[in-house]
Structure formats: structure tokens, C-alpha cells
Design a protein that fits this description.
Blueprint: H1 5-9, H2 20-28, H3 34-50, E1 54-58, H4 61-70, E2 75-79, H5 82-91, E3 96-100, H6 107-117, E4 122-127, H7 132-137, E5 145-148, H8 153-159, H9 190-201, H10 207-222, E6 226-231, E7 234-239, E8 245-251, E9 254-262, H11 268-300, H12 310-327, E10 331-338, H13 341-348, H14 350-367, E11 373-378, E12 381-387, H15 402-416, E13 432-439, H16 446-462, E14 467-470
Parallel strand pairs: 1-2, 1-3, 3-4, 4-5, 13-14
Antiparallel strand pairs: 6-7, 6-9, 8-9, 10-12, 10-13, 11-12
Helix pairs in contact: 2-9, 5-6, 5-11, 9-10, 10-11, 13-14, 14-15
Length: 477
């Protein structure tokens, strides 16, 4: 018999099931299914691959539901994650794919990946009317056509080449127990899919962590003695490398890395097919991880100076103070601003004033250590959080000397620096006034530490400027 489309739309294997199914996928991994559940999933995958008219849908549940209404006689395979959808497509290609324009900027690469796997597939982009310009752009990336919400049944059937097909014309699926040559043995297992789902949920941890997880995942999936992955500037490896099988990682015809597999199980042709699929997935995941990293960087970076912004500074300071309270380490905060900064804007103009802020930012970064948090606090005010994994404090210990020395070094470098942005008529030197406060002597929380540094900064201004004042050492004032 023909299984209804809704049957496939609810399967856990596509990370599509609502409620408990999706939670089992994300939180409990393959152990949530057990041997019986994994066997049922594999049987259903086999049946799907033998069905008459499969359609892959990548997008939100609303798109899936609309297609269920418009195409009641086909079997829908659904994933709400584009990377997982591409990988599943690679394991079991089909001739018809519907993509949501809501996927966003990654949609172009998804289409290109699908097109590489199945050059003749019908790839349809669906979106709301305001996304029509974006959907039209996807035609240049390889999409066959696009449709706008709300979906019209006749239109989507025509775009997918299903016009005139009736349920009676759909080829009957094989019985799950019958052998299915099309299925092969390359389809992902329930355990692999569960582990992949966890990796996709953790892309926000950054490209390096993502590559480490992918490396371990490939090694376990293939049963390899060793796996090494190089993806542009990142590398990762597990196990021992001995006469590895090497699979290039390509993007748009350009080699961007390599996947090395040592001692993988299975015959060489199957290993080559799986390695090629893993290589595509690795590149897609790394691109997504890099994009998320770039978005985080943009959200935490001051656009003028390139330093961290105030939001990032405040979050970092709170985190570091909490850490220092737990392990009895120290955190020191330097707040400073440029003396008489308004006079530079009035004399040279705002463009030169911006250039002065940028030059000071470069100079400040060069005087600080890699772990220090250097930020633009606002206007012409800057902040530096000095922290160390030092030995625990002992009762009666004094302020740490390293941050004080670093602050003085920056102050000295500033007075000696020739600011190119000010030109030949620049004043003798650019000076700053700052306040230095340390946890726990000057504040027992991030907010108290900021207030202590601000008081010290005002004191520095009050006694003649061009100096860094150490806070009084009275928390809570």
C-alpha cells in the first residue's frame, strides 16, 4: 500500500518529529531509540527509498504542512536543518526538492550542494512574497524555479513535474523485508544521525570545536583507526594515521581541505562513497560554524575601532569576576579616556577624531596580553580587563603588580607615539587619564569594580590629568 505523506513527516530520523521525538533526538541521542527503534528507522528508510514519488522538504514545519495538503499522494522526507537535509539527500538522492527561502544566506550553498549531488533534480524555492527577489536570485545558484506563499496545488505540482499524477499511478513500495538494491548500505544509521544532530546544535561553539567533533564522529561512524581533517586554517585528528585514504574537501571546484581515513571498515568503493559524503558535510558544517562565529564577532565588536564593544565587555567582566570569586584569582579593570578629546574634534574635525580613536585602539591592543579583554567603553572611553590564572590569593596579599605595569607601559607608549592622523601640526603628545581597580580589594562584583574604576578616573582628572590613579581599596563605596 501507499504510506501517507504524514507518516514520513513525523519520523524521528529526519529530526522532524514534534514533542518527545525531537527531544529524544536532540537530548538523548541514539540511546533513546534502542536496538528495536533503530531497526524500525532503518526499515522505514528502506521503504521510503523504494517508494514511487519521494520529495525532500528542507524548511519549517509550516512549509511541510502546506506541501502535505498540496501533495497528499507523495511521500515527503523532511528536515528543518539544511545541513542535515543535504547529508540525507546525499545518502539517498531523489528527483524533487522543496526549499524554504526562510533558510537565509546559506540557501545558495545548500542549492549548490544538492545540484552537485543530483544535477537533474527539480529544486524549488518557496517563500513569502517579500522574499521573491531573494528567491529569484537563487535561480542563479542552481534552483529550478520558485513559488510564493500561499502555495497553489496546481502550481507546486507543475513545478515538481507531478501534474496529472494520481495515487493509483504511484509505484507500490517494497515490503521492508525485501532486498532493495537502491538503498545500498551507505545510508546513515540512527546513531550517526543522532550524533550529527548534536554537532549541528553545537555549531555556535566555533569552527575549531566543530571540527574536533566532526573528526570524532567520522572515526566512530566508519570504525576507523584514525581520522585527520584539514579545513582551511583548522586541523583535527583522532587515532593513528597509517597509509590513509585521502578525500579532498572541495568547494565550488576549489580544494579547501582534506579528509584522511586510516583503517576504515568496508570495501574500498563504499569507503570512497562515504568519504565523499562526509567531506561535503564537513565543509558545510565548517562554513556554518564560521558564519556563526562571524556573526558573534560582529555583535560583540565596535565598528569604529575593531575592539570589543561595551556589551561584550560587561558580559566578560561579570564572568571573570564570578570565576575569580570561585578560584580566588584576581581581576583588574582599567578605565581611561583621552584628555580634552573634544578639542581634537573641534580643531581637526570628527574624521580626524575617529582616526585618533583607531590609532589609540591599535596601540592599546599591542600593549595588552592575548587573554586581556580590550574594549571601547563608549565615546573616547576605553576599558581593559586584566586577568590571570595565578596561584590562589592568600589573606593579606596586595594588589597584583602585572596590570599596573601593563597600564603604565601603555601610558608611556602613548606619550611617545606620533599620531599620523593629527598631521604635522599635532600637539606635543596625546594624554589619557585612567582609573585602575582590582577584585576583590576595590569591588566584590563587576558593578562595584566599574564604579571603583570610574571614581579613580575622576580623581585622576581632578588632580591634573595625564595619569592613572589606583582605586582606594574600599569595596562598596
Amino acid at each position: 500500500m501507499i504510506r501517507p505523506a504524514a507518516h514520513w513527516a513525523s519520523e524521528v530520523e529526519f529530526q522532524a518529529g514534534p514533542g518527545e521525538a525531537r527531544q529524544a533526538w536532540a537530548a538523548r541521542g541514539s540511546s533513546a531509540f534502542g536496538e528495536s527503534g533503530a531497526r524500525q528507522i532503518q526499515e522505514r528508510r528502506t521503504e521510503w527509498m523504494a517508494s514511487g514519488i519521494p520529495v525532500l522538504v528542507i524548511g519549517a514545519e509550516s512549509l511541510r504542512d502546506a506541501l502535505l495538503r498540496a501533495l497528499p499522494h507523495v511521500d515527503l522526507r523532511w528536515s528543518d536543518n539544511p545541513l542535515q537535509g543535504v547529508w540525507l539527500f546525499g545518502a539517498a538522492p531523489c528527483e524533487r526538492v522543496v526549499l524554504s527561502a526562510e533558510i537565509g544566506a546559506v540557501l545558495g550553498r545548500v542549492i549548490e550542494s544538492l545540484r552537485q549531488l543530483a544535477p537533474d533534480a527539480r529544486i524549488i524555492v518557496v517563500g513569502r512574497p517579500h522574499l521573491e527577489p531573494f528567491a529569484r536570485q537563487m535561480l542563479q545558484r542552481g534552483a529550478t524555479d520558485y513559488a510564493l506563499d500561499p502555495l497553489a496545488r496546481d502550481e507546486i505540482q507543475s513545478l515538481l513535474g507531478l501534474a496529472g499524477d494520481e495515487p493509483s499511478k504511484v509505484r507500490q513500495p517494497m515490503h521492508p523485508a525485501e532486498p532493495n538494491p537502491a538503498a545500498g548500505s551507505d545510508a546513515p544509521t540512527a546513531g550517526e544521525l543522532a550524533a550529527l544532530g548534536q554537532i549541528l546544535q553545537s555549531l555556535g561553539d566555533g569552527p575549531r570545536a566543530t571540527l574536533d567533533r566532526l573528526c570524532a564522529w567520522v572515526a566512530e561512524a566508519i570504525g576507523a583507526a584514525g581520522v585527520a581533517i584539514e579545513s582551511e586554517s583548522f586541523t583535527s585528528s583522532v587515532g593513528a594515521s597509517r597509509e590513509p585514504f585521502v578525500q579532498p574537501i572541495e568547494r565550488a571546484g576549489r580544494v579547501v581541505g582534506r579528509l584522511e581515513i586510516s583503517g576504515g571498515t568496508g570495501d574500498p568503493p563504499r569507503l570512497a562513497r562515504r568519504a565523499a559524503a562526509y567531506a561535503r558535510l564537513i565543509d558545510a558544517c565548517m562554513l556554518q560554524a564560521r558564519e556563526q562565529q562571524q556573526l558573534r564577532d560582529l555583535a560583540s565588536t565596535d565598528h569604529l575601532t575593531g575592539l570589543k564593544n561595551r556589551r561584550y565587555f560587561e558580559e566578560s567582566l561579570r564572568s571573570l569576576v564570578d570565576r575569580a570569586a570561585a578560584d580566588r584569582s584576581s581581576v583588574t579593570l582599567l578605565l581611561f579616556d583621552i584628555d580634552d578629546f573634544k578639542s581634537y574634534n573641534d580643531r581637526f574635525g570628527y574624521e580626524v577624531g575617529d582616526g585618533l580613536l583607531r590609532e589609540i585602539s591599535v596601540l592599546l591592543s599591542g600593549c595588552c596580553r592575548e587573554q586581556d579583554v580590550v574594549a571601547r567603553f563608549g565615546g573616547d572611553e576605553f576599558a581593559v580587563v586584566f586577568w590571570d590564572a595565578q596561584e590562589p590569593r592568600v589573606p593579606g596579599s596586595t594588589h597584583p603588580t602585572a596590570p599596573t605595569a601593563l597600564a603604565e607601559r601603555f601610558h608611556r607608549a602613548l606619550t611617545e607615539h606620533q599620531f599620523k592622523c593629527l598631521g604635522p601640526h599635532a600637539p606635543a603628545s596625546v594624554t589619557i587619564s585612567g582609573g585602575l581597580a582590582s577584585f576583590p580589594w576595590d569591588g566584590r562584583s563587576a558593578a562595584e569594580l566599574v564604579r571603583a574604576a570610574e571614581r579613580a578616573l575622576r580623581e585622576a582628572k581632578g588632580v591634573g590629568k595625564n595619569r592613572i590613579q589606583i582605586a582606594s581599596g574600599k569595596p562598596g563605596e
